[in-house]
Amino acid sequence: MKKQKKMNFNIILGCILLAITLIPALIGLVWTPYDPQKMDSSLKLAGSGIRHIFGCDNFGRDIFSRIMSGSGITVMIAVGTVALGSILGTVIGAFTGYFGGLIDEALMRINDVALAFPSLLLALVMVSLLGTGKYQVMLALGIAFIPSYARIVRSEYIRIKNLDFVKAARLAGAGDLRIMFVHILPNTKTVLLSSVMIGFNNAILAEAGLSFLGIGVQPPDASLGRMLSEAQSYMFVNPGYVLFTGATIVMIILGFSLISKEIG
Amino acid sequence: MRYVFKKILSSIITLFIVSLLVFVAFALIPGDPALSRLGTNATESALASLRHQMGLDKPLMVRYFIWLGSALRGDFGTSYSYSMSVTSMIADKLPITVTLMIYSLLLMIVISVPLGVYASYKEGTLIDRIIQIINQIVMAIPPFFSGILITLFFGMILRIFTPGGFVSISKNAVGFFGFMFFPSLAIALPKSAMVLNLLYSSLNGEKKKDYVRTAYSRGNRSKTVFFGHMLKNASIPTITFLGMALADIIAGSIIIEQVFGIPGLGRILLTSIQNRDYPVVIAIIMLVAVVVIICNLAVDIIYRIVDPRVEENT
Amino acid sequence: MEGLLHVEDLNIEFHDHIVPETVVYDFDLDMKEGEIVGLVGESGSGKSMSALAIAGLLSRHDMKKRGVIRFEGKSILDCPREELRQLQGDEICIIFQEPLTSLNPVKKIGWQVEESLRIHTDLPPEIRKQKALEALKEVELDDPQRVYDSYPHELSGGMRQRVMIAAAMVGNPKLLIADEPTTALDVTVQSQIVELLKKINKEKKTAILFISHDLSLVGQLCQRVLVMKNGYVVEEGTVEEIFDHPKESYTQKLISAIPKCEGAQDTVKNNPVLAEVEDVCVSFTKRKGLKKETKEVLKHVSLQINEGEILGLVGESGCGKSTLAKTIIGLLKPQSGRVNTKYPNTQMIFQDPYGSLNPTKTVGFIMEEPLKNLTEMSEQERRALAEEMITRVGLDPMYLSRYPSELSGGQRQRVCIATALMLKPKLIIADEPVSALDVTIQAEVLKLMSDLHNELGISFLFISHDLRVVYKMCDRILVMKSGEIVEEGNRSDIYEHPKHTYTKELLKSAGL
């Protein structure tokens, strides 16, 4: 009874945090209170007020509007990254885990190396190969995320393919592809779901990190990491800029990790 | 001993594969290093002679082995943009980054292990709840944001240190280590939260195991069951995680160097990526690979000492 | 005069759900010094909970206990933990079902055997070691010094359980609680452990509370028996009373569920051959670092299965019987030799009904799968056949829309049998089909299989480690050991005139 209550509390809190951050991000795709790119030198680094609730940045742009559109871009990149990484990773993991053999060993060797590498560094390498910009970042991070999904899915396939129900399916005449995707895949959903949730967080962190370093999303696009790195220069003049932007990232990540903690 | 030898051998092979992949990846990037060095209005003959001088006219695999040969002797070539030896560029900055890494690793262990053990020992109490809530929040803070918060709090509000006031170790050793505490803390905090979380949940998982029941049935005190039986079992996944966390610390230090204005490897790496100064990028990546692989090796060996079940076939 | 242990009106409640659930009701027990009492019941009957409460190990906050447990006059339920600790491991010891997980995996055996001495005595390390080695010797371990220096994963299941017993006996306790100590072990090892417990009781006068689901083992070991069902003690008496004159219908059902080895007649048939295995060898290669290690699992096995018979295949775990089953059905390719099955539709039933049904699919989906893949039947035809077959195995067609997790173990095994029937097979290979089930459920599933045999004329290859079950089911029997068939014969030949020493050993362990 007690346990049940606590679980719901985590999920509810997680949903609230995500609602606070993601709903404005969604609205930000179509409408923002001010044009996030509109500069106004008279409002340079203005503090919080009634008209500009989070204040203005060094070009006099409305910070609230910029956070709305910036978190939209951050979340979009994260979704794309996770989709790319998890789908390709699942397919690679499924084939290598199910069939095993020499290709599996060779791929896993490369995979181990890639996994041992800091994913941010891997993304740095990818970005230096692909160039900067939001789609390049998505592609770079997506590729950098493939190994972790491949590894997780592969080990699930190795575990499940030896279970009796898979043998029973084979005796029932199911072919390899049918066994892989109709019989085994649904059984990986718990593991896959929780790693998608964790992956989403890692993607937000990685994108923010890249953009913070100035090699991710490029102006005029704003992402939360990009904004944080701009805000850092002015943090003694207008600490609200840094704090509001940072808090948005923390709330998104906290929301996801609270939910994934209960699901995983 | 045979196990250690085998592990070392496989690490060397892995390193070799990494170097090949990295070198080939960078060699295939479109763009001509000679052209970017001399500018667009250079003559064709000047370009050709520079290409020959840089060895770019040789086949890819030949270039790789030439590079590998000199890299093994500690020579990573010449920087495109600074025309100086890559090795000496790195050697200058390496101690700073290494200090940052070791400092963070130590802080991470010092913060996470006692708290994780304590929280699990007191599972269900108020103090456990408080630790859990704080931990959950800290875990969600990206390292660069924790750096900014630390700068704001310790630098601006408490004024314990001067933001951006990096001093080199040769000028002022005390100042150096005092300053480095804050960036190290910024890297260590979010990672400690993860280690704490892992240690906490694996300790709680051990509580349900059969051997714990056996230990109680022999009349052990709860404390002895916890520290004498469970701790060693629960430390096994934590050791693995610490090994992986090191890779994240390296990544974290690249970012944190920017936040705190530390002239370490991270800054060279970033400028080199922006300037497409590939010899420097490759050298730093290989350096990271060596560190990561040595750490994995160490984890494997420690793992084997702690867990007798690890068989030779791993 | 109160004896060693006195339990009165013990009630155990489980408070994890909204409504508290009682798992043990009004449990009474009196044990004298040196007595062996058996506690019998199926899974979920509350026997292990009672035992844990007596050992003072039921201290979880969601468990509520009421009643009296007194050990030598001292109350276990409400004495402080510090006093309880003095009894545990010194006067009261307990051994568990799964010796591998019950031992600490990262500590050496010696350390664990000495533990009670370290806690309860001030003996110097040399004496402790000496006592531990003696204890290991007393449980008939061959090389006590080597075992002393080993880790749990380096020993076999039987050795680990001996180590558990040694660790319990090292401090000469007055009461040993054995919670299903033989369930995880092979039959021949089972009877060795029972003999060992008998010897300990005789030599050390240790009272033993023996908890088991296996009535025949309890009969071999105990003087007095308590039968439990759904949290109640339904019957209590001496072994003779319980076995010869059971009063309660549940006890009678339990006893009748033990397959008897009498009255069955050999039905010698010379029917045509259905499947044939000729000189089959199977080996597995495991890469161990750079070296390859080959393990021969089947060594030149030949057998034939005739139409209309139930062929039994008996052997202990690891003897290769499951590998043989997989080879016959075509899941494994033999390195040499031939397998001929005359009819394509041979089906298989697996041991673990939890692992053999896909948890993410409905029963209907699982049952229709073979028809989908191998026939051209329409959806309606498939559904109609599934309904027919699930009714045939005694389940309501509404189960077709259920998920396996909603079914009990017995129901799952029925679903597996129904699935096997979907393609109307001539031969079904049943690999330990009832070993994961409770005894009364076992009897029901066995009856279903023999009905199918009689009514539909399906042949079975019935694989089991349990000689009693095989005796009840099979016309002809093969005995397997280390990948070889060591004896083959009709039922009466094997059971009455066994030739091979291994067969004799197996029969002896099963108490036949």
Helices and strands in order:
The complex is a heterotrimer of chains A (264), B (314) and C (512).
Chain A: H1 2-30, H2 63-99, H3 101-116, H4 119-130, H5 134-161, H6 164-171, H7 176-184, H8 189-212, H9 224-233, H10 239-263
Helix pairs in contact in A: 1-2, 1-10, 2-3, 2-5, 2-8, 3-5, 4-5, 5-8, 8-9, 8-10, 9-10
Chain B: H1 2-27, H2 33-38, H3 44-54, H4 60-72, H5 86-121, H6 126-139, H7 143-157, H8 173-207, H9 210-217, H10 222-260, H11 265-275, H12 278-306
Chain C: E1 5-14, E2 21-31, E3 36-40, H1 47-54, E4 63-71, E5 74-75, H2 81-87, E6 92-95, H3 99-102, H4 109-113, H5 115-120, H6 125-138, H7 144-148, H8 157-169, E7 175-179, H9 187-204, E8 207-212, H10 215-221, E9 224-229, E10 232-238, H11 239-244, H12 249-257, E11 273-288, E12 291-306, E13 310-314, H13 321-329, E14 336-341, E15 347-349, H14 363-374, H15 379-392, H16 409-421, E16 427-431, H17 439-456, E17 459-464, H18 467-473, E18 476-481, E19 484-490, H19 491-496, H20 501-509
Parallel strand pairs in C: 3-8, 3-9, 6-7, 7-8, 13-17, 13-18, 15-16, 16-17
Antiparallel strand pairs in C: 1-2, 1-4, 4-5, 9-10, 11-12, 11-14, 18-19
Helix pairs in contact in C: 6-8, 9-20, 14-16, 15-16, 16-17
Written account of the structure:
The complex is a heterotrimer of chains A (264), B (314) and C (512). By secondary structure, chain A is mainly alpha-helical. Chain A has a single domain (2-36, 56-263), classed as MetI-like fold. Chain A contains ten helices and no strands. Chain B is an all-alpha fold and 314 residues long. In chain B, 77% of the residues lie in helices and 0% in strands. Chain B has twelve helices and no strands. In chain B, helix 7 crosses helix 10 (222-260) and helix 10 packs across helix 11. In chain B, 35% of the residues are buried. The model of chain B has no long low-confidence stretch (mean pLDDT 85). With 512 residues, chain C is an alpha/beta fold. Chain C is built from 20 helices and 19 strands. Chain C has helices at residues 47-54, 81-87, 99-102, 109-113, 115-120, 125-138, 144-148, 157-169, 187-204, 215-221, 239-244, 249-257, 321-329, 363-374, 379-392, 409-421, 439-456, 467-473, 491-496, 501-509; strands at 5-14, 21-31, 36-40, 63-71, 74-75, 92-95, 175-179, 207-212, 224-229, 232-238, 273-288, 291-306, 310-314, 336-341, 347-349, 427-431, 459-464, 476-481, 484-490. Chain C has a six-stranded mixed β-sheet with strand order 6-7-8-3-9-10, sandwiched between helices. Chain C is globular. The A-B interface holds A 109-110, 112-113, 116-121, 124-125, 127-129, 201, 205, 208-209, 212-215, 225, 228-229, 232, 235-236, 239, 242-243, 246, 249-251, 253-254, 257-258, 261 and B 14, 17-18, 21-22, 25-26, 29, 136-137, 139-145, 148-149, 151-152, 156, 244, 247-248, 250-251, 254-255, 258-259, 269-270, 273-274, 276, 281, 285, 288-289, 292-293, 296.
